[in-house]
Amino acid sequence: MLARSPTAVRVMEPREVAQRLQQLCSELGLRPKQAAYMVSKQPGYLLLTPLEAIRAKVQELAAALGVPPAAVLRTALTVPSVLRRKTATVQRRVAAYSSLLRCTPLDVLHVLARGPEYLSDTPSSVRQRMIALGMVLRQPRCTIAAMLQARPDLVSMSGKVMNTKVNGLMSILNKEKRHVVTLLVKLPALMRCDLDCARAVFGGLQALLRKREGFVYAMICHAPQLLLLTPRGLHQRGSALRRCLAASPEWVAQFLQLRPPAVAQLILNRRGCLSAMMYLSERQRAGSAPLEQLLATGGPAAALGDSWAE
């Protein structure tokens, strides 16, 4: 950091830097770690620029983009260089991405906050990669735009890597491309999944649940997030589920009747259903609440009452 900093920063005493960090936290409403991160990325600007000028820049950008100042500051937390750029330049860049991604300037700032590369990249370059992703997935531009809003980092993938990912998922799931594309559109994060982990999880679910491939695939269709689990994470969840079922014949009978979406919900611990089973098992109350109730919205709280809040 010091190597790329102005001389005025390099000669600052640690006490002065600490004082400045406190001032940034106080004036901009930042947490210490946030202020430290921003300074590490833009030491000269954030340590030497008057606080009044930084606040004025945030207000100026907010007015130019038509967004709340808090949105500008939230973007600056991960891309502090946005505060150093000319307001007109940022305004043009945001307008271009707003048109390209078919979203509002506020949405663009959310994208920039999660994908800093968009600020250093050009809209024309992003457009070309959107076209490439559209060709790989055979999807219209509006769908690709929605995927990039959900996962801005997809824009950094080459066409070759995209094809590799799609073909890998086709092989793992033993499904045609159109089925895999449906999953990718539903959960764009799958484009960034580790294929080896995904293969291990898909096979691991079949072994854990003693279900056929078709049953597990139906689970994936309802909850593609399952493929983002690590093998270790699946093992931990599976072990917890097995212990709970071993403690209650009633739960075993009910579990065998569950459809794929409900089983996926248990594995992912949605609504705290698996946690509720573990809670009841630890207190020698396994089977006291039916799985159907624990899987329902608000089910664990209704079944356990005040004890669940503990």
How would you sum up the major sheet? none
Name the helicity range: over 70%
Strand residue percentage: under 5%
Poorly predicted regions: none
Output the helix-strand order.
HHHHHHHHHHHHHHHHHHHHHH
- Label the structural class: mainly alpha
What's the count of strands? Answer: 0
- Helical run tally: 22
Shape: globular
What's the N-to-C terminus distance? 45 Å
Overall average residue pLDDT: 90
**Alpha carbon gyration radius:** 25 Å
What would your notes on this structure say?
The chain has 310 residues and is mainly α. The protein has helices at residues 7-10, 14-28, 32-41, 43-48, 51-65, 69-78, 87-100, 105-114, 117-120, 123-137, 141-150, 159-173, 177-186, 195-209, 213-222, 231-246, 249-256, 260-268, 273-282, 291-295, 299-304, 306-309. The model has no long low-confidence stretch (mean pLDDT 90).
